[in-house]
Amino acid sequence: MLKIDMHTHIIPKIMPNWTEKFGYGKFINLVHNEDRSADMMQGGQFFRRIQENCWNDELRIGEYEQFNTQVQVVCTIPVMFSYWAKTEDCVELSQFLNDHIADLVAKHPKNYIGLATIPMQDTEAAIKELERAKTTGHVGIQIGSNINDENLSEERFFPIFEACERLGMALMVHPWQMMGFDSMKKYWLPWLVGMPAETSRAACSMIFGGVLERLPNLRVCFSHAGGSFLPTLGRIEHGFNCRPDLVAVDNSINPREYVGKFWVDCITHDIDALKYILKLQGSKRICLGSDYPFPLGDLEIGKFIEESDLSKETIEDIFSHSTLEWLDLKKEKFI
Ligand SMILES: [Zn+2]
Predict the structure, then answer these.
(1) What are the extents of the domains in the chain?
(2) 249 CA distance to ligand 1 centroid (A)?
(3) What are the residues facing 221 on neighbouring strands?
(4) How many A from CA of 9 to the centre of ligand 1?
(5) Which fold has domain 4-10+56-334?
(6) What's the mean pLDDT when you consider all of the chain?
(7) How far, in Å, from the CA of 270 to the mean position of ligand 1?
(8) How far is the CA of 268 from the centre of ligand 1 (A)?
(9) Is the Cβ–Cβ distance between 151 and 209 less than 8 Å?
(10) What digits encode the pLDDT tens for the residues 238-267?
(11) What is the pLDDT of residues 166-220, one digit of tens each?
(12) What is the DSSP letter of 193?
């Protein structure tokens, strides 16, 4: 059975020292260690230690083959987005990352699919890089759940989504710069509490802001099974019904109407949670994702689904059909 893991992150092994090059900011720089790990430094400060599977394409293929996975959709690590930087610098950084992924996909067309990053802080520059990324083989983009704390419902982002629809570029929304980060650093709460809330924030913003209504052919996927959006849909819908004066100000359509129209990945670590999401979304709108190679991901790449009592058809939808439809790709390309 074809398995495509549509949620994985990659970074080039060698990058310029952006902070030195641009002369400001807290850009990410990699300092390689003797044991083949590397320290991600953020403007000179230690951010996180990563392993060789963050950049070594052959090593990655070997690792995911162990879990009967043939293809990875790759995108950058969200901390690389750098939406806070000057536009021209973010363009240069985005192009460097996008060209790295484009080269990787050209080298291993059966094993990798690429999603680009674009400078969301500047609408015109973002669309320009989106158009360029399409010509270099990217089939979509990954964006943050907020853009410098602005919600995705802001009108200035709409032309970017419109361009995605026009170009047939898929959109993956990934949580980052989590709300409440500074006030809840203990216990890894930004990742455990902030991330699911961020994704719900993005989904609510795109629905209530009318983005999904105005762009019915925009193919959007929300990370981590949609975060807390689907598990709290009852509350969200009730809020829409009881306080339309607050909620339905830009779109009068019930949020539940959009369920099953966007995609989510399956990263729940919990088969019962996945079954509930399946009930809402249907098997054609849930994609196999892992968040490889990070420890909070499902590094056994859907083993909990293989071991479940879900039907072969449902599993096949999750493992490849949903992702192929989200990215508008043909199965034959990978078999
Ligand atoms: Zn991720």
Answers:
(1) 4-10+56-334
(2) 32
(3) 172, 263
(4) 6
(5) TIM Barrel (3.20.20)
(6) 97
(7) 17
(8) 13
(9) yes
(10) 999 999 999 999 999 999 999 999 999 999
(11) 999 999 999 999 999 999 999 999 999 999 999 999 999 999 999 999 999 999 9
(12) I
